[in-house]
Amino acid sequence: PDIRPLIYMTAVREIGDMKTYQKLLDWYKETTIPGERIGLASALTNFKDPDLIDKTLSLITSDTVKLQDSLYWIAYSLVSRHAKHTAWSWLKDNWQWVGDNFGKEKEIDYYLRYAAQGFGTKEHLDDYSKFFESVSIFGSKRAFEQGKETISWQTAWKARDEQKVIDWLNTQK
Question: Residues 146-167: what's their mean pLDDT?
C-alpha cells in the first residue's frame, strides 16, 4: 500500500490519458480507505491535459469528492505544475463555496497557504494579495500574511538561483 501513490503518479506521468484518469477516478469512488483516497486524489490532480484538469476541479464541489477530502484535491491542484494556474482561478471563483463549508474551521488557513505555495512570481503575489484583500478570509489574517511571505521568498529564491539550477541541470545530461 505504501507504493500505490507512486504507481498512480507514474501512470499519470507516463500515460496520462482519459482511460487512466477514469480508472483512477473509479477507484477513488469505490475505496473506503481514507489514505487510499488521498493517494488517488494526488494522482487525479496531476494530469497535464487541460480538459482533465477542468474535470478534476469540477469534481471538488460535487458528490464525488467527500467534503473532508476537498482540501487535498485543491492543495494538490495548486501545487501541480500543470494545474496550478487553473486551480488558482478555480479557487477564486469558488471562494464562496470554500467559505460556506470551511469558513468557521481552522482548516481555512490551509486554503490560504496552499494558494501561495506553488507560486513564485511578483504577479501572483499581487493577484493573491488583491484577491484575499477583497474577500472575507474568515479571521485568517496570519495565514494570509504567511502566504504573502511564502510567495515573496519563493520569488526571491527564483530570481537569485533559477539560472544556477538550470545551468547545473544542463551539466547532468
Answer: 96
